[in-house]
Design a protein that fits this description.
The protein contains five helices and two strands. The chain is mostly helical. It has two domains: 2-130; 149-195, LysM domain (Membrane-bound Lytic Murein Transglycosylase D, Chain A), CATH 3.10.350.10. Strands 1-2 form a two-stranded antiparallel ribbon. Helix 1 (2-18) runs antiparallel to helix 2 (23-69) and helix 2 packs antiparallel against helix 3. It is rod-shaped, with a radius of gyration of 38 Å.
């Protein structure tokens, strides 16, 4: 769980810079990040506490087992009872720590869901901002050009305009005849029909 929290905090840190929200959203994300860091520290503290309780529990069990074997004196019995009580307290404390850790983990999961929801909203807003508001209309081509002519293979440095000048044709004829959507993007090696009168 701690690994996921740390990984998510890294993503959150990056996202707070990558998504251009309003000032209020940045404050919310910063607050959520701070909450996540506090929760992460508390979960780590609880884990350490539970680990210590488990070790103490194991030691007490060893002592209890040894005393159980040597129940010869009343002093041993009283020590045994004391150890049993301490063991019960340790076990109770361990259960409480486990419950606290479970509720903490649930709280972390809820924070995750909130942050993921806010990040998704931010990504949607960013996507809407980056999408063009209006799509460019489809170009239309005319059939009003001479049907006589020849095929020219585009060479390095040539443009539609230079080809038209070279063969005394018209730029509009070449564009219409070859249905060129962008006259600036005519690549070397492309074969163009050059209409001539």
């Amino acid at each position: 769980m701690v690994f996921h929290v740390n990984a998510f905090l890294g993503v959150l840190f990056f996202s707070s810079y990558a998504i251009s929200y309003g000032q209020g959203d940045r404050v919310i994300i910063a607050n959520l990040k701070q909450d996540m860091e506090l929760i992460n520290r508390e979960v780590s503290g609880l884990r350490s506490e539970v680990e210590l309780l488990r070790r103490e529990n194991a030691k007490l069990r060893v002592v209890l087992d040894q005393l159980s074997r040597n129940q010869s004196s009343s002093q041993d019995r009283s020590m045994l009872n004391d150890l049993q009580n301490r063991l019960q307290l340790v076990e109770l404390s361990q259960k409480q720590s486990d419950r606290a850790r479970g509720s903490m983990q649930e709280e972390v999961n809820q924070k995750f869901q909130q942050i993921i929801g806010q990040m998704n909203q931010g990504f949607e807003q960013l996507t809407k901002i980056n999408q063009p508001s209006t799509s460019s209309p489809e170009p239309t081509f005319s059939n009003d050009y001479p049907k006589n002519g020849f095929v020219h293979k585009v060479e390095k440095g040539e443009t539609v305009s230079s080809i038209a000048q070279k063969y005394k044709s018209k730029v509009s004829w070449i564009i219409d005849a070859n249905q060129i959507t962008d006259p600036n993007k005519v690549f070397v090696g492309k074969e163009l029909f050059v209409p001539l009168k």
